[in-house]
Specification:
The complex is a heterodimer of chains A (about 325) and B (about 500). Chain A has about 325 residues and is an all-alpha fold. Chain A is built from 14 helices and no strands. With about 500 residues, chain B is an alpha+beta fold. Chain B folds into three domains: about 150 residues, D-Maltodextrin-Binding Protein, domain 2, CATH 3.40.190; about 110 residues, Dipeptide-binding Protein, Domain 1 (Dipeptide-binding Protein, domain 1); about 200 residues, Dipeptide-binding Protein, domain 3 (Roll), CATH 3.10.105. The chains are: A mainly alpha (about 325), B alpha+beta (about 500).
């Protein structure tokens, strides 16, 4: 198992290298750069003073070829130096460190809620496959599948924040300051993400469970007189969870993109909003820092999924 | 005797009213304001952007030298008096004595000297000069007298000194020298509040300035500016009490808020205007008949209704009706007349087809599509491209690839700073205007600095000349709104989209 983990971690190096190189070159290709912003380009009636902009580029080292800048940045990363924002002067590592816990908490809570909704729904629809209950739940899942996260987020905010005033419409309270307030501030955003996530998980589990329930050993268990609940939970659920776990891993990556929108709507200071703002203001070092973190997180999530396979099915370890 | 009694009663009534006002002003509490864009920094030599979120977030910690009172009189704030040389090249300000910055440093003339030295040596000076004028140097005549020396006669400087023009906001000089580049994150002004904490992209927190000269005016304990992107999330936040105030230019949001009895909405009809500019140097837009036809073809009321929920008025000038420089609509702006438009296009005699660029923001993209539709009815084909806002957009305009573009023009404090880009020799002449009549009108306006009435007339003639040659289509003066919950007291209208939120209080 250790060998397997080591191999996976070694994979992380070329993946991170490729992802950061691609993103660095793509961001560099965007028209306009931070030197423009510093010189005031992009404001009403602004005059483009090319000489001044060129000097700013020189000061910031932006006049060097993109390949040189990329390797210079990469060298910095190996020494733990991610650089700092051109505009605000904030360290990239500091900006990410402040925001990462927010996004992590959002993703974990969203995934937890999604699994909480998906497993019972998946079990019920598989057990009642083709019947009225299955059709009802299936209709609901398709409705949520079709709804974009921002619509769900806006509806949730309107219902539970503006109308009922149960949860705050926006804002973030750190857990250390007020644990209950923190959970309240995360309830609607994580629910908005969970509501688009659970239908996929539920459908995947349903399909796998239906297949499992047709296996001979399930028939044997029924013949032994075991209760349906016991068979579903003890004999059917575990072998039907492989695809579910894989999808959870993949969906976590997708959730990050959903988080960008949800973080904006609920004004959560997470990594998603930082990434969007940094792309808009051409803060290439900030963008790179976030992408490195995301790439590492993505690989680690997949690693955890692989390890979980081993836990669920010892044959994988062999 | 009766007169004396009457006067006595009146005096008591006034005293009671005043004391009621005083009692209604509560001290304490935290005011939370939702801002639409993240703060990029406080040092305008590093971050020169005049974007309204940034200016409003800077306002609690800085002060102007003067403000403009009734009839254009000067009301002292940090300055005591203002004199100028007869040729309006040198402007001398006597500063108030005994004032301090929020770090305890004395406020004096050297603050302005250091402040402008910093600006003039910065890469952003080319941009900032457009807002503060052609300053050659700033000299401390004595500890509390500062002289601004201009490169040329510059009558607009009085307006710059008496309006909230953010590049004039000075930092504590010793502190500035000490922190260097970090001034962007560690500003120190003389205003009623001072920066306590700034988490970029998240929030900015201000606390009371202990050295402020009028502690009775510091009602709030704290002011927090929180970044909440999007109109709807911010409006929901005010409605639910998550924040106290939001600022917006969005008509739909302001109109929605007006219908909510639990909210206060204060609107300012801001000058400046949304516009469409033309590259007048190449066909088909180098022909005045085409440009006039395009102007006649547009129903601007429909544009305003569609693009900003009717929040504002169609513009005929870059100054709005609230400005003393407003030309009262007498600039000869072409009326909506499709028949005339068709006639002019017939006279031109060739098919009209061009490329227009816009940004993907609501007001601009709806406006662009609506213009495209109006022009299509006249047989004009417009290819529309969308480019992200910010530097990329302005680079696209300057690239020469487009014949027309949507752009907003902010209102300046004086016509000497407004609309100069239609002068053929101006470096910012992106419309490639080259109209001797426009140039002559502007030169005449520059020369008419002795008499304000004549000066206004000359500038209005300049606006009329620009409109006659139509390198630009005016769309609308858009409103600006402050939306607040009912517990916010003492809310005042904004001035040039700047709000004195640090002067409000929270009702208990």
């Amino acid at each position: 198992m250790l060998k397997y983990i080591r191999r996976k971690l070694i994979h992380l190096i070329p993946i991170t290298f490729a992802v950061t190189a691609l993103s660095f070159f793509f961001v560099d290709m965007l028209p306009g750069d931070v030197a423009d912003a510093i010189a005031g380009v992009g404001t009403d009636n602004s005059v483009i003073d090319e000489a001044a902009i060129e000097e700013i580029r020189k000061d910031l080292g932006l006049n060097r070829p993109v390949i040189v800048r990329y390797f210079s940045w990469l060298a910095g990363v190996f020494t733990g130096e991610f650089g700092k924002s051109y505009q605000t002067g904030q360290l990239v590592s500091e900006a990410i460190a402040i925001r990462l816990p927010v996004t992590l908490q959002l993703l974990i809570m969203a995934q937890f809620l999604a699994v909480l909704f998906a497993i019972p729904a998946g079990i019920i629809t598989a057990y009642k496959a083709g019947k009225f209950t299955d059709k009802c739940i299936t209709t609901i899942t398709f409705a949520f599948l079709a709804a974009p996260s921002f619509i769900i987020a806006i509806i949730l905010a309107f219902l539970f924040a503006v109308t009922l005033n149960w949860f705050p419409a926006t804002g973030y309270i750190p857990f250390s300051e007020d644990p209950l307030g923190n959970l309240r501030s995360f309830t609607l955003p994580s629910l908005a993400l969970a509501l688009i996530e659970w239908p996929i998980l539920s459908r995947v589990l349903r399909n796998d469970l239906i297949e499992t329930l047709q296996q001979d050993y399930i028939l044997m268990a029924k013949a032994k007189g075991l209760s349906n609940f016991y068979i579903l939970m003890r004999h059917a659920l575990r072998p039907s969870s492989f695809t579910l776990i894989t999808v959870i891993g993949i969906q976590l990556g997708n959730l990050i993109s959903g988080a960008v929108i949800v973080e904006s709507i609920f004004a959560l200071p997470g990594v998603g909003t930082l990434l969007v703002n940094s792309i808009h203001s051409r803060e290439i070092l900030m963008v790179q820092g976030i992408i490195v973190i995301m790439a590492i997180a993505y690989v680690i999530i997949n690693l955890v999924v692989d390890i979980l396979y081993g836990v669920l099915d010892p044959r994988v370890r062999e | 005797m009766i007169k004396m009694v009457k006067l006595g009663i009146l005096g008591i009534a006034i005293t009671l009213t005043m004391s009621n006002v005083a009692f209604s002003q509560k001290k304490g509490g935290t005011l939370t304001i939702g801002m639409d864009r993240p703060m990029t920094g406080f040092d305008s030599s590093v971050n020169p952007r005049p974007e309204y979120n940034r200016r409003n977030a800077m306002f609690p910690i800085y002060e102007d030298l003067f403000s403009e009172g009734a009839g254009g009189s000067l009301v002292p704030i940090l300055g005591l008096s203002l004199t100028n040389s007869p040729d309006k090249k040198n402007w001398t300000v006597k500063l108030k004595k005994g004032l301090k910055f929020s770090n305890g440093e004395d406020f004096n003339a050297s603050a302005y000297v250091a402040h402008f030295k910093r600006y003039q040596s910065s890469k952003a000076w080319g941009f900032l000069r457009g807002m503060v004028g052609p300053i050659k140097e700033v000299v401390a005549k004595d500890n509390h007298t500062v002289e601004f020396r201009m490169l040329r006669p510059f009558p607009a400087f009085r307006a710059i000194l008496s309006n909230p023009v953010y590049p004039m906001w000075a930092n504590a000089p010793q502190h500035s020298a000490k922190v260097g580049q970090d001034l962007n994150r560690q500003p120190v002004g003389t205003g009623p509040y001072m920066l306590s904490n700034w988490t970029p992209g998240v929030s900015i927190t201000y606390v009371k300035n202990p050295y402020y000269r009028n502690p009775d005016g510091q009602y709030l304990d704290k002011i927090i500016f929180k970044v909440i992107k999007g109109e709807l999330p911010r409006l929901n936040s005010v409605k639910s009490g998550a924040i106290d105030v939001m600022l917006t230019r969005d008509g739909k949001t302001a109109n929605q808020a007006k219908n909510d009895p639990n909210l206060q909405v204060l609107t300012e009809l801001v000058g400046g205007t949304t516009t469409i500019e033309f590259n007048t140097s190449k066909p088909p837009l180098n022909d005045i008949r085409v440009r006039r036809a395009l102007a006649h073809a547009v129903n601007r009321r429909a544009d305003l209704k569609a693009s900003n929920d009717g929040f504002g008025i169609p513009s005929t000038d870059w100054f709005g009706p609230a400005s003393k420089w407003y030309c009262e609509g007498n600039t000869g702006y072409p009326e909506f007349n499709p028949g005339k438009a068709k006639g002019l296009l017939r006279a031109y005699g060739k098919p009209v087809k061009f490329k227009m660029v816009t940004m993907p923001i609501k007001n601009f993209i709806i406006g662009a599509k609506l213009h495209q539709t109006f022009w299509k009815r006249m047989g004009v084909q417009v290819e529309l491209k969308v480019v992200p806002p910010g530097p990329a957009y302005f680079r696209a305009i300057r690239s020469g690839r487009f014949d027309a573009w949507l752009v907003g023009i902010s209102e300046a404090v004086d016509p000497g700073l407004q609309g100069q880009a239609f002068f053929s020799k101006n470096r910012g002449n992106s419309t490639k205007s080259n109209f001797p009549e426009v140039d002559a009108a502007l030169k005449k306006a520059w020369g008419s600095f002795k008499d304000e009435i004549k000066r206004k007339a000359a500038y209005c003639d300049y606006v009329s000349a620009v409109i006659k040659h139509q390198p630009i289509l005016f769309r609308a003066h858009n409103n600006f709104a402050i939306i607040a919950g009912k517990k916010v007291g003492g809310l005042k209208k904004s001035q040039l989209t700047l709000t004195r939120l640090h002067e409000v209080w929270l009702k208990k």
